[in-house]
Amino acid sequence: MSKNQEKEFFFFELFCIDPEDIKNELALAQAICFSNNLWNGKNPKIENEKSRIRIKEDETGINIIIKATDTSNVLTNYYDAAFMLNIFSDDFEAIEGIRIKILNHLKHTLKFNHIRLLTDDISTFIANKLYPEINKIENLLRRYLIKFFIQRVGFEWWETTANKNMIEKVKMRKADKRDEISLLIDDEVRYVDFDDLGELIYKQSSGYNNPDKIVNRLLNISNNEDFINLQNELQSNYTKYFKENFQDKQFEQKWRDIIKLRHKVAHHGIFYKHELNYGIEILNSLTEIISTAEKLIDNVVFSIEDKEALRNAKIEANQEENTQMDGLKIIGRVDVGSTYNKYENSYNDIEEEDMLYELEVIQKSKWNKFIGLRWFTTEYLANKNYSISTSFILINILIDKGKIIKYDVNSPNGYTVVAIKLAESA
Question: In sequence order, what DSSP letters do the residues of 400-420 get, joined into one string?
Fold first, then answer.
């Protein structure tokens, strides 16, 4: 430390009221100094100062300033003695370790009836170390959620993945915060609580996380094909990705541990050094988990079973809008909540046979050179009262099954259009 660099002192200040048998500052100082358990064999000194007494221990740099307070003007609950104890040191380890010892000595040995904490720089120091790192991990997960679900589910991922409670909460918060940037972006995930962010991950990670769903499916299996379908769903790419990258790395438990620390920061809780060490360790681990999963997003290829499960989830979300009030609905591996799209709720979900029929009708009409995927779903099928999102998913499934072909067309306007056609017309 340079000559001009000031030491950083950590203060732990207490207001101690009504001891059993201590009437003045010197008696209290002696009662504190003569405790072997408190000082571990060290020899603190007592120094008389103007209007107060100081306890000083040179090795650890711990100082305790004791000052009696006037009790004569108390209106209620009269007490004989009260003292201010200002405990401080520039040695963080020493001051952090002595806090609980002093409190135990004051409460159980010296029998103070009331002890109030006025200042705790140690907890503040730890909280200030933890919070920026917690904020980083929170933003890292928000970034990941947006990237994964937009790239792998679509821009309607929020309605498909979040539960009703999250959707309602975000709507209210967005209505209250009409700042300029928020008006220009789709930012639902930025209004999600820290707890909910983790839930969006580990509800995906656990596959069939509701045993009742598995039991119901098993009870309704009537043939070998149904059993194979269930087996494929349980072992799908979607499940495997979240299991290997999150569940197997104990993401849920680590996130819940950080939730506890975050709540303590928010509510000015008392912190201990072991929480700082553990918190940093867990935050580093979560950073590695999320960063690794983000790098692998492009490697995730949804199987037909994944897409069918997602489509079923979306259909169920639409159908149960008025009956599902709370909790996540689980279809296959995909946990979803009720959609909040008033137009979507009034739409029907097209089935495979009808989809192929409608596409055949357009192809036979010969009135256009190609059938644009977006036009076909958002205009043609939507005008026939079919859901846009579930139509998109079904087309993707039929492409995987080889019944529909997707290809690019260069439009007269100079940009590329994604087009589709029946496989037999290729």
Answer: HTTSEEEEEEE-TTSSEEEEE
Closest by CA to 315, choosing from 301, 298, 334, is 334
* Main-chain dihedrals φ then ψ at residue 51, nearest 5 degrees: 65, 15
> Which amino acid does the sequence have at 363?
Q
Residues with Cβ within 8 Å of 351's Cβ and at least 6 positions away in sequence, in order, are: 394
Confidence of residue 325 (pLDDT cuts 50, 70, 90): very low
pLDDT tier at 340, thresholds 50, 70, 90: very low
Long-range Cβ pairs for the range 77-83 (8 Å, 24+): 79/17, 79/18, 79/113, 80/18, 80/23, 81/17, 81/18, 81/19, 81/22, 81/23, 81/24, 82/15, 82/16, 82/17, 82/18, 83/15, 83/16, 83/25, 83/28
**Count of CB atoms within 10 A of residue 335's CB?**
25
| CA–centroid distance for 80 within its chain | 50
Using an 8 Å Cβ cutoff, are 259 and 194 in contact? yes
Question: Could you tell me which of 15, 28, 33 has the C-alpha nearest to residue 82?
Answer: 15
Instruction: State the pLDDT confidence band at 210, using cuts at 50, 70 and 90.
Output: very low
Residues 6+ apart with CB under 8 A from 148: 293, 294, 297, 300
pLDDT by residue (tens digit) across 55-107? 999 988 999 999 998 877 766 667 788 999 999 999 999 999 999 999 999 99
Measured CA to CA, the distance from residue 4 to residue 55 in angstroms comes to 27
Which pTM was predicted?
0.73
For residue 213, the number of C-alpha atoms closer than 13 Å in the C-beta half-sphere is 17
Q: How much of the chain exceeds pLDDT 90, in percent?
A: 45
Dihedral sign computed on CA atoms, order 289, 294, 298, 302: positive
Sheet containing strand 416-422, edge to edge, reads: 371-372, 416-422, 404-410
Structure-token pair, residue 92? 């963080």
